[in-house]
Amino acid sequence: MSDWLHSLQFRLVVGFVSVLALALAGVGFYASYATQKELDAFGEDVEVARVARLENVVADTFDLELEPRMSLLEPALRNAAQLFGWKIAVVDRHGNMIAGSHRYDGEMRAETFFKGPQVTRRPIMVRGRLLGEILFESPYPIPHGLLESIPYTISSEALRIQSLTIGEDGPRPPRSEPTGIEEVESIEGDSAQNQVEPQLSQLAASFNRSLIWAGLAAGAAGIVIISLTTQRTLAPVHTLTRAAVALGRGDFSMRVPVKGRDEVGELGRTFNNMASQLEDAEAVRRSMTADVAHELRTPLSNLQGYLEAIKDGLIEPDAETIASLHSQVLHLSHLVEDLRLIAMMEAGALRMDMTSGDLGDIADLTVDSFMPRANERDIALALTRSSDLPEISVDQTRIRQVIANLIENAISYTPEGGRVDVDVTAGPGEVALSVTDTGPGIPGDELEYVFDRLYRVDPSRSHATGGAGLGLTIVRQLVEAHGGTVSAESPVHSDASGVGGGGGTRFTVRLPA
């Protein structure tokens, strides 16, 4: 559990859930605020309509003599109180109670009838005369500004009709039937609240509860979806982790399945490429270890054999024997020096003494040093150079080593009577040096490996046909240290029929001018 809390999936889930929670909270807050605002406005409109309705109902209970008909007024107040949830009273101009929606005693004053301070007053105006006031107590007081939008009570429709019937004979008796007001039995105390209209606050609370449950359901669904999504997204990462652990333990054959073209898929392809390179590097390392052991074992075995024979008195330590031992020691010394040089170049610890020089002159000196050996094997060694060679900045000692290794390699693989040509030419922004031989050539599938450490085309590793396989590796390292490139090309000569495939190899070094 502790590992999962520190995992990338947990952080992704927390991040997504936080965003989801903030989004739901924002939507919920705004929806609740907007709904409450609309409900408040709707509630105010309902209260105002109730006040206007109450005033008309009360006005309808007055007769032509402007006296209230108690048989209609009391039931009307109870009916309105039952519908609206209010406590209502009608008083005359002197403040004396005329009627109330709840039980009261005789000459009770309105101040005694109402217990709370929030009492709303509205005048009773019939045919322009102030007859009294309507007082009501609502659970939610109505803002005074809203009441100003309601005109004062006017004559009811019944009074208007009755006033039109007045003539010379005097007024007719009023109608005894109620004008739209049903008589209901008196409902005392809190029992009247059982049938009141539902409060708008209940609607708002119900909406908020629904919103909360919807938010919780959406949040839970979001968390499940996020968890599944992150788990599926991170599954390749877990596979990569297991593969990396196996790779760290030395299993370089480990690969991961790659699906898709997204960042995770690209990471998988990069991992597989890295594993392939590490596998190749491990194979090279093992091969190099075996090759170095082979290269060291032969001269050491020879030295050991000669020394033991001299010790036992089987061989006299004459000049020939000493010369043979010396050659073996020189071979070991050259091999160790080449390995040391390669290690320094790969570590970036090889110091370069850069000076300005002519590559043609450097090549000329190097070719002259190989003339005795070439003549000994009846090999024609020739140098061709352009006349307009520019000066280049190089470490002349290291560049001579590059040219010497290439010529040494060419002479070693060129049969007697063959030819080795060294050409130095100028190109756009560079100077090129090529060494071409007439040897058997290099198979095309092996050209890309000739610069690898201890790699030799001759699988027998005979010193008669070459050294330890480090010369071309040193060439590449030194050329690249000068900012140049080296390449191999084979075959470069035609066979007897005049088509390619006759043999020969050309190594070309290009250095920036």
Task: Briefly say what this structure is.
With 513 residues, the protein is α+β, with helices and mostly antiparallel strands. It has helices at residues 2-5, 8-60, 70-84, 110-113, 144-147, 157-164, 200-248, 263-311, 319-347, 359-376, 396-413, 471-481, and strands at 87-92, 97-100, 120-126, 129-137, 355-357, 380-385, 392-394, 419-427, 430-437, 485-489, 493-494, 500-503, 506-512. It has 3 domains: 1-166 and 195-246, no CATH class; 286-347, Helix Hairpins, CATH 1.10.287; 355-512, 2-Layer Sandwich (Heat Shock Protein 90), CATH 3.30.565.10.
Task: Tell me what you see in this structure.
With 513 residues, the protein is an alpha+beta fold. It folds into 3 domains: 1-166 and 195-246, no CATH class; 286-347, Helix Hairpins (Orthogonal Bundle), CATH 1.10.287; 355-512, Histidine kinase-like ATPase, C-terminal domain (Heat Shock Protein 90). Helices cover 51% and strands 14% of the residues. The chain has 12 helices and 13 strands. Helix 2 runs antiparallel to helix 7, helix 7 runs parallel beside helix 8 and helix 9 packs parallel to helix 12 (471-481). It starts with a helix and ends with a strand. Mean pLDDT is 76; it is low at 154-197, 460-466 and 496-500.
